[in-house]
Design brief:
Elements lengths: L15 H16 L1 E5 H20 L2 H10 L3 H14 L8 E6 L9 E6 L5 H38 L1
Antiparallel strand pairs: 1-3, 2-3
Helix pairs in contact: 1-2, 2-3, 2-4
Length: 159
């Protein structure tokens, strides 16, 4: 007699679900973004976030824990050497889910789940330069306004 299951399962029985999520996580870390159903993306997000958090710690124990889920050695190496250092100063929120149109065949709601790119040094430098430019423009406008008021005051005194 089949055992009753608690809650919804993705695509199969309870034994298939962790394998499905592990495969999705592997593809996410390999390609950076994947297109899947909304339900699978919502279930994948916490798993991916926990794996990245463990990879950020980087010790042997956490490497072995991640290896239980991500069995592909090249993806595991990429996760620990490229992806985890990218989020070193970020406390969470490593992934983003964007809803897209429904799938053509069965009208299933689809979504894109992707790794959020951390700001690179060049991007932060550009942001700081833009902020400095805005401050300089604002200060120049204020100086021009003060100068205009001073000119008006002199004209009023002479008249």
């Amino acid at each position: 007699m089949p055992r009753p299951t608690k809650g919804a399962r993705l695509g199969g029985g309870p034994h298939h679900e962790p394998l499905l999520l592990a495969g999705l996580a592997r593809e996410l870390f390999q390609y950076g973004r994947i297109t899947t159903t909304e339900a699978k993306a919502r279930r994948l997000r916490p798993l991916a976030e926990k794996l990245i958090t463990k990879a950020k710690k980087g010790d042997l124990h956490n490497r072995r824990l991640v290896r239980k889920t991500i069995t592909d050695v090249s993806v595991l190496h990429t996760l620990f050497t490229e992806i985890a250092p990218r989020y070193e100063n970020r406390p969470g929120g490593y992934t983003r889910i964007t809803k897209i149109g429904p799938r053509r065949g069965d009208n299933a709601p689809m979504a894109v789940i992707e790794l959020v790119e951390a700001l690179t040094v060049a991007q932060t430098a550009v942001g700081e330069a833009e902020a400095a430019t805005k401050r300089a423009v604002k200060e120049a406008d204020e100086a021009a306004a003060v100068e205009t008021k001073a000119d008006e005051a002199e004209a009023a005194e002479q008249a």
